[in-house]
Amino acid sequence: CHCISAGMAHELAARQWSTTGVARQHWTTQIPRVFCTLLFINNEWCKSSSGRKMAVLNPATGECICEVEEGNAEDVDKAVSCARRAFQLGSLWRRMDASDRGLLLNRLADLVERDRLLLATMESVNSGKLFLMAYFVDLMASIKTLRYYAGWADKIQGKTIPVDGEYFTFTRHEPVGVCGQIIPWNFPLMMLVWKIAPALCCGNTVVLKPAEQTPLTALHMAKLILEAGFPPGVVNVVPGYGPTAGHAIAHHMDIDKVAFTGSTEVGKLVQKAAGKSNLKRVTLELGGKNPNIVFADADLEHAVQEAHHGLFFNQGQCCLAGSRVFVEEPIYDEFVRLSVEKALKRVLGNPLLANVDQGPQIDRKQYDKILELIESGRREGARLECGGVPWGQKGLYIQPTVFSEVTDDMRIAKEEIFGPVQLILKFKSMEEVIQRANHSQYGLAAGVFTTDINKALTVSSAMQTGTVWVNCYNAVSVQAPFGGFKMSGSGRELGEYCLQDYTEVKTVTVKIPQKNS
Amino acid sequence: DSASFLKDFIYNELFINNEWHDAVSKKTFPTINPATGEVICEVVEGSKEDVDKAVKAAKEAFRLGSPWRRMDASQRGRLLNLLADAIERDAAYLAELETLDNGKPYSVSYCIDVPMVVKCLRYYAGWADKWEGKTIPVDGDYFCYTRHEPIGVCGQIIPWNFPLLMQAWKLAPALATGNTIVMKVAEQTPLTALYVASLIKEVGFPPGVVNIIAGMGPTAGAAISSHMDIDKIAFTGSTEVGHLIQQASGSSNLKKVSLELGGKSPNIILSDANMEEAVEQAHNAIFFNQGQCCCAGSRTYVQENIYNEFVERSVERAKKRVVGDPFNLKTDHGPQVDDEQFQKILGYISSGKKEGAKLMCGGGVAADRGYFIQPTIFGEVQDDMKIAREEIFGPVMQILKFKSIEEVIERANDTKYGLAAAVFTTDVNKAHYVSNSLRAGTVWINCYNVFGVQAPFGGYKASGAGREMGEYGLEHYTEVKTVTVKIPQKNS
């Protein structure tokens, strides 16, 4: 999610696309040939130690794109040793000027820009997201994030501190060390960049496991990392499964920190694993059941538009999805009507095509889970306004679904669906909706639509969430921190704040003959 | 004597919602004077049900619209300063109580512990209204800012080695940032923290903002670490229990975790060091607080060519250490805190002898009653001996020999711990090279155990996560909220 709100992104993409002649020349609906299918360790490509491979599927067709080496605990061990060596005092990476780390990140950004078309196509084919979104949102955000953190590299500053006594005290902001990074399948490339950019900026080394469903762009990035000139061992990419490779990372005795983005359920396992193993530092970006609150004085059409894209963006597969739309009573019926109208207009189809709005869900497991939750909505008495069933002959498509008359105790209102299912709930007063919005174990994001300044400030202060949007949704930008309250996670990504989680602070106190201020 | 001193001591119950409560179970436990082994008094023992009560009170006090949430930040600072004033007023009493319960010499309680508590509170009082969010220039027509909000209900579990100071280190940043607290104090040393609770009420903190419970780790401590309604836990104690706390967070509600754990800190003496200074500092580095310091300099690495002289001088210095009644102002060295620690330390001394280290002085019990151990020094210590690898937490000094800087850096870093370290040298290049190379949260150069509340303190690796003190300490009591508002037209 680049910092255009979700609704604008879609229109911008379509508009830009039709005016970009160059793009039209090179654009293809062909599945690109995949060259990078091996594990990337120590700047070398190698086969998995088990000899096993994973099939990588195209969720729009169900077909196998290619096979990729499957890393396991042994491969993780190899990667960690290389990352540890690259982190040794006196190594190329440790001796490098901070500004040069920034230069490398900028160079990587250049390479991503050069290969933007290929990466966007590969991302669309592998994850099912729309090509236009991949090109204008995912790739744009990835490039900007690399350039943003490139800029921070030589601005990571410690302090000199006026302690009592005849001492000179300062802090060094050192890298934490070897960072294990486990990323999800919903924004494969962007999640990779969100992880490696701050880590490398601060001087850490990385062992990254992409999601088993979507390893392709991660491996292409490894190729670019090599081309950009990062020293061997600084970034290692090991595709594999959660219970094997992921488990190995979370439990590894020589990984200093683990950063995990994924479900809250697995987040808990990662936290426990850290406690069981070596007390590695843990940052988590987990699930959400994000309230989107629309007051009667809001710009109705704008709110409908933002709420629509706020939920349906990326086939509903967003930790940020505005999955509980709370609408104030006086405008409720009209809001539902307009939302359903919008949902019905949504075009499903081949994500590589320009006139398509929605692609398939990522895999069978997600697909089944979404349909099961839709069924529970029906059973528990919510009103199915549209959709609710699969679509198409092949691929894992689900029709855009809207439920109204949803009450807080229904499963669909409590559990994260991660699919194209919009829930519209009614509320009477501001105090009531604040209480209901906060009544969740999650706390990732919230939206509020109103023209009244007092409502805007009161509600945004009251939300127990890491991000609050006022009169917009999904407006994410690399300069602003992002993360969860409560069980939506700990720590912040993006912004200056993220650097804290990739830094180990050392206080040095030197005895001096005479202190002067 | 304890009885008459304590006849007016009524603060031996649970402090919940600014009231004194009996335990739901009605249980009590005795707290012991480690200098004599005698019971000082009975203290109410809190368990899970009492923790539940306290969390409810803390949660209520954190509710949007509550007096604590509506209070000006500057007023939170004012309350911290008032608490500092009250502690200063009662300094002598608090120091006595601390010495009685913990065994540290009265001169130390009065001149070091209590003044550091006061400084810590005043320092964070000053931060309360200066902990600022940012406005951020994002792309697009938006106005974006961050709020630095309190996390919520913070569980805080503190140890027995610096009871008052550990309480202040925990309370001050948490309260400065606007959190509410459920604190479990160590069962060995509950008295001073409970007295401070009465001061917290006296100076005007609203009910439920601070709740203090004396209780046992496996009951009250476990209840806190797995509580579904506690938003963050801060624990200072052993690495062993630190593991349990992080796991409990994962098993319960993923509460944020910060840890201050054990250490086996290397103190490196290069041959160009000022010998007298180094010996004195190294002595205090290990023997301060009867060796009961997470950052104790428990591996003293001495460069080859000054090794013999250093050992000789260290032994001489250790023999001068006065062990005795902590209330005697001439005493340097009091008892260990309890029988469990006492036995554990004697066990390590025994293992040192067995594994072939050379006992240079001490090595035995120092008195007929109480938990006194002689200041002990082992020479010819090898890296693989238990006494060189495991945290002893007692008055046992290990002196090891090294040849080169590269070698000692590698040996110093070869530990799962990473809390502190020191280097003694007069060469500026060596000082910077060694301090840069040591994987430890605090590195002292030509000094040891220098603590300023302004400077962050915490561990690398298994010595902990997060930093206490300094501005950095505020980060761990803050939940950052990003607010992005759509505006008609952005201008820089």
From TrEMBL, chain A:
Please name the GO terms that the record assigns under molecular function.
aldehyde dehydrogenase (NAD+) activity
Q: Which UniProt keywords apply?
A: NAD, Oxidoreductase
Extract the InterPro entries matched here.
Ald_DH/histidinol_DH, Ald_DH_C, Ald_DH_CS_CYS, Ald_DH_CS_GLU, Ald_DH_N, Aldehyde_DH_dom
> EC number(s) on record?
1.2.1.3
What's the short name of a Pfam family annotated to this entry?
Aldedh
Give the positions the UniProt entry annotates as the active site.
E285
Any keyword Oxidoreductase?
A: yes
Annotated SUPFAM superfamilies: ALDH-like (SSF53720)
Q: Has keyword Zinc? A: no
Q: Which residues form the Aldehyde dehydrogenase domain?
A: 45-508
Q: Write down the PANTHER family for this protein, in alphabetical order.
A: ALDEHYDE DEHYDROGENASE-RELATED
Its family? Belongs to the aldehyde dehydrogenase family.
User: What is the protein's given name?
Assistant: aldehyde dehydrogenase (NAD(+))
Q: Which organism is it from?
A: Pygocentrus nattereri (Red-bellied piranha)
From TrEMBL, chain B:
Q: Which PROSITE patterns match?
A: ALDEHYDE_DEHYDR_CYS, ALDEHYDE_DEHYDR_GLU
The record's section on InterPro entries has: Ald_DH/histidinol_DH, Ald_DH_C, Ald_DH_CS_CYS, Ald_DH_CS_GLU, Ald_DH_N, Aldehyde_DH_dom
Query: Cross-referenced Pfam families, in alphabetical order?
Result: Aldedh
UniProt KW keywords: NAD, Oxidoreductase
Domain of life of the native organism: Eukaryota
**Top-level enzyme category:** oxidoreductase
Please list the GO terms describing molecular function: aldehyde dehydrogenase (NAD+) activity
Which residues are the active-site ones? Answer: E260
Domain Aldehyde dehydrogenase, chain residue ranges per copy = 20-483
Tell me which EC number(s) this protein carries. Answer: 1.2.1.3
Q: Which family does it belong to?
A: Belongs to the aldehyde dehydrogenase family.
The name this protein goes by in its record: aldehyde dehydrogenase (NAD(+))
